[in-house]
Amino acid sequence: MKKILILSANPKNTANLRLDEEVREIKNTLAISPHRDEFEIITESAVRVDDLTRFLSHYQPTIVHFSGHGSGTDGLALEDNSGNMQLVSTQALAKLFDLFQEQVECVLLNACYSQEQATAIHQHIDCVVGMNQAIGDMAAIKFSIGFYTGLGAGRNYEDCFQIGCTSIDLQGIPEYATPTKKIRRRRYQTEKPTNSVKFNHSNSMNNDNKGGQNRSVSIGGSVTGSAIQTGESNTANINFQQVSLPAPATVNIEAEINALREILAKLETPDRRKIDNAFEDAQEELNKPQPDKDEVGDALNRALKYANKAEGFASAIAKLQPHLTKITAWLGANWHNLLSLVNLTI
């Protein structure tokens, strides 16, 4: 039994959204699906910031679906105790889902400009869906119908995402390229079905909203927020060794990353899953025809920073140095700071 926790928030000082209609359509879609007995739907509306941890702890959902307003870099809009908007920061959301990564498989943020939050949450959750720009009510509802149609038919999350995008396109709504996905397949899928849906996103489309309000919120005046900050107070004296970088063309990047991963795999650390997730993200990017080196660098940076907390990391530095030197050469000047993690400089 997979629990689907649908959270919605429409603070009274934001534009009115058709959130009840979206919840009803999701319920109706799963109620007539072939696998309807495999899902339990739990809904909570007018969600406040304090409710997030409580609901995730109490219900222990497999899928978390948020419907409401987003505000890009400022975060997602929930409610305070007076029903007004209170923003939850990207950093705080990522830290929250870090605590529930063993139970949550998928997070769907059906809110405008939520791609940044989706990317941050994906550090800990294998499948996260967000929106790369504003999305109107009708497009958001049609995406949900398509997504849960696929889920109720036993399709994997990637297929569900594609079906959701296609459902928008079939209605003639140009926002079919607005949903974005971040997916690792290893936890819920070992082999991709041969009948998977293919969908070509074209970001050049002019995505005008249809069907009423979009799910964004403008920030102005006084708005309360929620964030979590952490810091390290430990200091140490470190001697840095100067190295020369090889020519990028001489680097077998996949071999070097695999070597790096094998070394870190021997460390005993409670952050093992986070390290593996980061390497999976790097590999996913490398599998693309034209991988983004900054995406690879960001993933490796996360892996190394988590590994750096392990008690035995210091003893592994000497083994890591030659591989990270070559990796840094391939990544380019933007990522020379990675060398400092293993006491190197150029």
Describe the structure.
With 346 residues, the protein is α/β, with parallel strands linked by helices. It is built from ten helices and eleven strands. The protein has helices at residues 19-31, 49-59, 90-98, 115-121, 137-152, 157-170, 253-264, 272-286, 293-307, 313-331; strands at residues 2-9, 39-44, 63-68, 76-79, 85-88, 106-110, 127-131, 179-183, 224-226, 241-242, 344-345. The protein has a six-stranded mixed β-sheet with strand order 2-1-3-6-7-8, sandwiched between helices. A three-stranded mixed β-sheet has the order 4-5-9. Strands 10-11 form a two-stranded parallel sheet. The N and C termini lie far apart (54 Å). Residues 187-208 and 226-236 have low confidence and may be disordered.
List the helices and strands and how they pair.
Blueprint: E1 2-9, H1 19-31, E2 39-44, H2 49-59, E3 63-68, E4 76-79, E5 85-88, H3 90-98, E6 106-110, H4 115-121, E7 127-131, H5 137-152, H6 157-170, E8 179-183, E9 224-226, E10 241-242, H7 253-264, H8 272-286, H9 293-307, H10 313-331, E11 344-345
What is this entry, summarized?
With 346 residues, the protein is α/β, with parallel strands linked by helices. The protein is 38% helix and 14% strand. The chain is elongated, with a radius of gyration of 22 Å.
**What is the general shape?**
elongated
Structural class: alpha/beta
Oligomeric state of the chains present here: single chain
Number of helices: 10
> Biggest sheet, in brief?
6 strands, mixed
Helix content: 25-40%
Order of helices and strands: EHEHEEEHEHEHHEEEHHHHE
